Amino acid sequence: MRAALCLLVALAACNDLRDFQGEWSGSRIGEAPPLKVGIADGAHAVLSIDSIDKHGLAGRLTIDGVVSDAEVASLPGAEADALATMSFSGAPMRVYLAFVDAPDGEVMVIIALYDSRRVEIRALRGGATPLYAIFALSEGS
């Protein structure tokens, strides 16, 4: 009985992740200066998730003024490490780490999926062209 219950929970978790496939879009959030470094006011992001499971996420990402239709794929090492279960305020059900190519240097993105059918993206970069921005995405908007 316990094994059957575990299997049902595991299958439900897989289905929940696959349900995130598709297009997600939304605006930058947070008005504090440290939350909008290197990004224009009113910036918008679009994430198209082509494939997703508990081992990774792949798709395309556009962030106004930062990246345009860039390939995004989660880091296999992070998925195989304790980072795969990383969490923070708001308790995302799953977090993926990735790097995307941008004209002025790579951008690290943290993609958080929530039970409430929303996605948050944190885009960050250090160095000569620092970037920090958070985007709240909803499905197909």
What this model shows, in words?
The chain is mainly β and 141 residues long. The chain has a single domain, classed as Beta Barrel (Porin). It is built from 2 helices and 9 strands, in the order αβββββαββββ. Strands 1, 2, 3, 4, 5, 6, 7, 8 and 9 form a 9-stranded antiparallel sheet that branches. A hairpin with a 6-residue loop joins β6 (94-100) and β7. It is globular and about 35 Å long. 25% of the residues are buried.
Topology of helices and strands:
Elements: H1 2-18, E1 22-29, E2 36-37, E3 44-53, E4 56-63, E5 67-73, H2 76-79, E6 94-100, E7 107-114, E8 118-125, E9 131-139
Antiparallel strand pairs: 1-3, 1-9, 2-9, 3-4, 4-5, 6-7, 7-8, 8-9
What key attributes describe this structure?
single chain, 141 residues, mainly beta, Porin, nine-stranded antiparallel sheet, 2 helices, globular, disordered N terminus
Number of domains: 1
Termini separation comes to 42 Å
Indicate the overall shape: globular
Count of alpha and pi helical runs: 2
Mean pLDDT: 86
The residue fraction in helices comes out at 10-25%
- Low-confidence regions: 3-15
The main β sheet shows up as: 9 strands, antiparallel
CATH topology value: Porin
* Computed structural class: mainly beta
- The secondary-structure element order is HEEEEEHEEEE
Rg over CA atoms, rounded to whole Å, is 16 Å
The tally of strands reads 9
Percent of sequence in beta strands:
over 45%
Query: What would CATH call the class?
Result: Mainly Beta
